[in-house]
């Protein structure tokens, strides 16, 4: 069970579940290794798993009308993720989630999750807390894009996401910031 040590730690930190309950929950998770550029979820498919990023970086994006990737957010280690609409309603997702670097993900199927939730309603409560935290983080991370120049936005990104700045290709960072890759290259050159 040491495989899921970081996930175990996050669940136990809530102090909602007993150690044996946590152990039983973890028995339902699967370990997935994603290679760089491998999709975890592709548009048109249904999201039937809740995932937790153990290590690596994931990028979620959609395609615009011109077929270009528009980055919505990045998933960093210690975060839960899924396409909620697709997961809850069983509809095809419009979202793509792809590994930016080799990544390790722990996942639980909707069937197993519902089984656990039936036995331990506090698990469902805990997942809702994790979802609320993820949403708040996403909102905070996107708020800075509403204010300031492209240079200020990039500086904020560098300061608050140094791991992403070092490991994510420029095209994804530029898309996330809502600027062209050539503009981002110019900003980086000018910063020295």
Topology-level CATH name of the largest domain: Jelly Rolls
Q: Return the structural class.
A: alpha+beta
What name goes with the CATH superfamily of the largest domain?
Jelly Rolls
Helix content: 40-55%
Tell me the layout of helices and strands.
Blueprint: H1 5-13, H2 19-26, E1 30-34, E2 39-41, E3 49-55, E4 58-63, E5 69-75, E6 80-81, H3 84-89, E7 96-99, E8 103-109, H4 110-119, H5 121-143, H6 150-160, H7 162-167, H8 170-177, H9 181-191
Antiparallel strand pairs: 1-8, 2-7, 3-6, 3-8, 4-5, 4-7
Helix pairs in contact: 1-2, 4-5, 8-9
Characterization of the model:
By secondary structure, the chain is of the alpha+beta class. The protein folds into 2 domains: 2-143, Jelly Rolls, CATH 2.60.120; 147-192. Helices cover 48% and strands 21% of the residues. It contains 9 helices and 8 strands. The strands form 2 sheets. The protein has a 4-stranded antiparallel sheet with strand order 1-8-3-6. A 4-stranded antiparallel sheet has the order 2-7-4-5. The mean pLDDT is 90. It has helices at residues 5-13, 19-26, 84-89, 110-119, 121-143, 150-160, 162-167, 170-177, 181-191; strands at 30-34, 39-41, 49-55, 58-63, 69-75, 80-81, 96-99, 103-109. Helix 1 packs across helix 2 and helix 4 crosses helix 5 (121-143).
Comma- or semicolon-separated keywords:
alpha+beta; 2 domains; 8 strands; 9 helices; 21% strand; Jelly Rolls; 192 residues; four-stranded antiparallel β-sheet
